[in-house]
Design brief:
Bound molecules: pyridoxal-5'-phosphate
Number of strands: 15
Low-confidence stretches: 140-172
Shape: globular
Oligomer: single chain
Strand content: 5-15%
Largest sheet: 6 strands, mixed
Length: 537
């Protein structure tokens, strides 16, 4: 019996494996588990644990139908040499707090040491490994307790062998998975890096034309792999995301794909397999704070999270449910401040101007993962969640009851930064701390400066979601440097002026060949997906 069900209905439970393979529930809801928080992680023991050990423990708890061996294999494969730091997500102290009126020490949790220099790597290096263990063979393995046609754990030493296992699983049903995802910039490349050349799996990435940085675009358009489709879309991210949601709801299209033995799945942050790995770094941050002598186990910590689709910060809420002493979770938005208004008023209204900002991964009007938060704060009332989502779709807004808003506000607070404030934050952080931040992280830095710490907070942690070198033009400009026409010259200017170094995987993009040049209108996306499916056979 599975523990996962839709946020919009409690019948039809699924295992974590099926929830991961499927992505979205068939009624359009998100998969949630009522077991969240039934068991806790003991924070008195975590200081002694490595990132990998924390990941084993937390992921096994949240994905109960995966075996401990499978989780261990996934963790070791995902967080190996592709991360440039042994802590995976290292914690760095800021000598000067963003809020100069407080003496609560501030830290940055660097989530950008993965292969694409953005925090999404932490989840997207994991998701394909989990996905590879969700085929029919893997299901049999849990059901009858035998190893079946899949390789045993000790044989799975290398990535290639893990991939063979995925082939075996796919062969058992002859079914292939086509990942379809819309990206506002970072998801696309991180998903491509995770899924490229994975047998039995194809991936289609749509990004809004002209709305991602040149570095982000090149990261995607230079992606190699025989199972990869990258396509620019005429429209903004929300248009692309909505079109992808329609593809998932398109029964005729899915039938035609099923005839070719292809099922659709999502790598977007609504997938349980992306959410769960993100819970780990909240505990890792806490463990590092204890190890550095900055807090005692049990003391309260505040986390400030640059937010778009609400996945990253929701993982912080999951961490709190698992026993992490969280004082507050601060939602940091850019000028697209729909979440700030929601937390102030209880009204979520997507009918508002859309702004294209220097933090494209946060330019979002519909934060998909918020639905999971609503589910938990509606105390599991799926009908209520359904009614909110119906209103959001049909009328453009919904209002939550006052008592529900009050409960949410005991955990979440937040604010937002306009473009000038983002630039000022980048400059101020550099001048006061000699620490470079990207425009997304800068929204969080600004918000930490605006909101005073909750009483009894022992430390404040800002989650840094991208390397400043992914956005070299914005960062160089904020520091008052010359900004040459080419983004890569901006990178060099930034290196020279700050005596820091761009990650090699970004600096070398300029020399790589562009392999993907398609541009499509919104109504052409189903056709692009069908085309990609035929490539899978
Ligand atoms: C995706 C992303 C975010 C937003 O994260 P969500 O989980 O969507 O809230 C923030 N910053 C960067 C750099 C990102 O790539």
């Amino acid at each position: 019996m599975g523990t996962y069900h839709s946020t919009r209905a409690r019948n039809n439970n699924k295992t974590a494996r099926v929830a991961i393979r499927q992505g979205l529930a068939s009624d359009g809801g998100l998969f949630v588990s009522d077991d969240l928080g039934l068991t806790n992680i003991d924070v008195n023991t975590i200081a002694a644990k490595s990132y990998h050990e924390l990941a084993h423990e937390i992921m096994a708890m949240l994905l109960p139908d995966f075996t401990a061996d499978e989780i261990a294999q996934c963790v070791d494969e995902a967080y190996g040499s592709s991360f440039a730091h042994t802590e995976i997500t290292p914690l760095v102290a800021l000598p000067c707090a963003p809020d100069s009126s407080t003496d609560v020490p501030s830290f940055v949790l660097e989530l950008f040491h993965g292969p694409t220099s953005a925090f999404k790597d932490v989840a997207l290096q994991m998701l394909p490994r989990l996905m590879a263990r969700t085929g029919a063979a893997a299901e049999n393995k849990t059901n009858n307790g035998t190893v079946g046609t899949t390789a045993t754990s000790s044989e799975l030493d290398t990535e290639a062998e893990a991939v063979d296992e995925a082939v075996a699983a796919a062969k058992a049903t002859d079914e292939r998975v086509l990942i379809v995802t819309a990206t506002s910039g970072d998801t696309g490349k991180a998903a491509l890096a995770g899924f490229a050349d994975a047998p039995g799996v194809g991936i289609v990435v749509f990004y809004p034309e002209g709305k991602v940085s040149r570095v982000q675009e090149l990261q995607m358009t230079t992606q190699t792999g025989s199972n990869v489709t990258v396509c620019a879309v005429r429209g903004n991210f929300d248009d692309a995301q909505t079109a992808v949601k329609h593809i998932f709801a398109n029964a005729e299209l899915k039938e035609r794909l099923a005839a070719q033995n292809v099922v659709l799945s999502s790598a977007n942050s609504i997938n349980v397999g992306r959410l769960v790995p993100q819970v780990v770094y909240y505990f890792s941050a806490y463990a590092q704070l204890i190890r550095q002598g900055s807090i005692m186990p049990g003391e309260l910590v505040e986390f400030c999270v640059p937010t778009g689709n609400f996945g990253d910060i929701l993982a912080g809420y999951y961490a709190q449910c698992l026993g992490l002493p969280v004082a507050k979770l601060l939602v940091a938005s850019d000028k697209n401040n729909v979440l700030f208004d929601f937390l102030e008023t209880g009204v979520y209204n997507r009918l508002r101007p859309f702004y294209t900002t220097s933090s494209p991964s946060m330019d979002i009007l519909v934060s998909s993962n918020l639905e999971r938060m609503l589910y938990y704060f509606a105390q599991g009332n799926t009908e209520l969640v359904s009614s909110f989502m119906d209103k959001l779709a049909n009328q453009g807004s919904y209002t939550i009851p006052a008592d529900m808003l009050a409960r949410i506000r005991t955990v979440f607070d937040g604010s937002w930064a306009n473009e000038e404030q983002v630039n000022a934050a980048i400059q101020s952080c550099w001048e006061r701390n000699h620490y470079l931040i990207d425009p997304h992280t800068a929204c969080g830095y600004h918000v930490l400066g605006e909101i005073a710490p909750t009483p009894n907070t022992a430390a404040r942690v800002l989650l840094s979601t991208a390397s400043p070198y992914k956005f070299p033009r914005v960062v160089a400009d904020a520091l008052g440097l010359e900004t040459p026409a080419d983004d890569f010259d901006c990178m060099s200017a930034l290196e020279a002026a700050t005596n820091t170094q761009a990650p090699a995987q970004l600096a070398t993009l300029r020399e790589q060949r562009v392999l993907h040049t398609s541009v499509a209108d919104i109504d052409e996306l189903p056709r692009v997906v069908e085309q990609a499916a035929t490539m899978l056979t």
